[in-house]
Amino acid sequence: MEYTQALEHKKDILKCLGELRSFNYTEIMIMPAKAEDFERYMEEYRKDPGRFDDQSCIQFSTDNNFMVYRIGEDKFLNCRQGKI
Question: Which pTM value belongs to this model?
Answer without folding.
Answer: 0.74
